[in-house]
Amino acid sequence: MGLRFFLIEDDPVVRKMLEKLIHESGLGEVVGCAEDGLNVRAADLLHVDVVLIDLLMPGRDGIQTIKALRQEGFPGTFIMISQVENKEMIGQAYLHGIDTYIQKPINRYEVLSVLKRVADHLSAVRSLESIRQVLKGLEPQTADTAVSKPSIMEQQAEQLLLLLGVAGEAGSADVLLVVRWLAEQEAKGQPVRELPPLKELYAELVEREYGLPPGETAKEARAMEQRIRRLVLQAFTHLASLGLTDYTNPTFEHFAPRLFDFGDIRRRMNELERGQMETECRMNVRKFLTAFFLELKRV
């Protein structure tokens, strides 16, 4: 089934061009248009998959419109249309919910490439969700179910670590332990709103997994803390490197603003551009682990 698009663009020529490209691509149909974001509400987008929205518009700009629609509960994908080349402004757009952007003036091949990539991503997400629902229906409703769910999520975590370029890091096994712990809390009906202090969490995981004496538990918990911190730093640098090479890389676009502070990502990109190997950015490991788990739940 094709995607349903909505266009928010003040230039009628651009709107017509985008509508024609979407129709000719066979990726879906345009189900609505608006020349500004002032009168668009989430209720108008109930059956919309993707919103293409201009960054600079009279009345209310694209970022303000996205913030308002997100607050109203619109869960779909935003593609920003921008003639602005300022990376800080584009970075702000990512922080407020866009999934990718198209540079003006409109280029047919770029538009088709972006739309195809977004369509493929949404198709993959839907397929995974369908599989997950089927597997859920096949699972026996017993106490063993609580054990199988973390196992599935750990497999997804391994794939995500691979995508982030850190699957081979020593801390990957530790991250899987954190994921398992979080999944178990949810399976017990006790979803974690906020991670406990990390030192306490690491100590609990070490004690449970290895059964070490108190002195050794503290030592191994510190080692786990360092391994996870190194993994997070590697993921941070890997994403910054992807963004430096290709700002429209889908892995960079999706994960950089979700797993890290985008301002830090931009600073790391500048450091790498200058050839600076060590970063001055501080790692927010708690945010990374929380966002990492939320990403697994989105699949």
Describe this structure in words.
This protein has 299 residues and is α/β, with parallel strands linked by helices. Helix content is 61%, strand content 9%. Helix 5 crosses helix 11 (285-298), helix 7 (198-210) crosses helix 8 (214-245) and helix 8 crosses helix 10 (262-273). It is elongated, with a radius of gyration of 22 Å. The model is unreliable at 141-150 (pLDDT under 50).
Summarize the helices and strands and which ones pair or pack.
Blueprint: E1 3-8, H1 12-25, E2 28-34, E3 50-54, H2 62-71, E4 77-82, H3 87-95, E5 100-103, H4 108-138, H5 145-163, H6 171-187, H7 198-210, H8 214-245, H9 250-259, H10 262-273, H11 285-298
Parallel strand pairs: 1-2, 1-3, 3-4, 4-5
Helix pairs in contact: 1-4, 5-6, 5-11, 6-8, 7-8, 8-9, 8-10
Low-confidence stretches: 141-150
The biggest sheet, with number of strands, parallel, antiparallel or mixed sense and barrel status, is: 5 strands, parallel
User: How much of the residues is beta strand, in percent?
Assistant: 5-15%
Strand order of the largest sheet: 2-1-3-4-5
Overall shape:
elongated
- The Rg value, from CA coordinates, equals 22 Å
Which class of secondary structure composition applies to the elements? alpha/beta
* Helicity, as a percent range: 55-70%
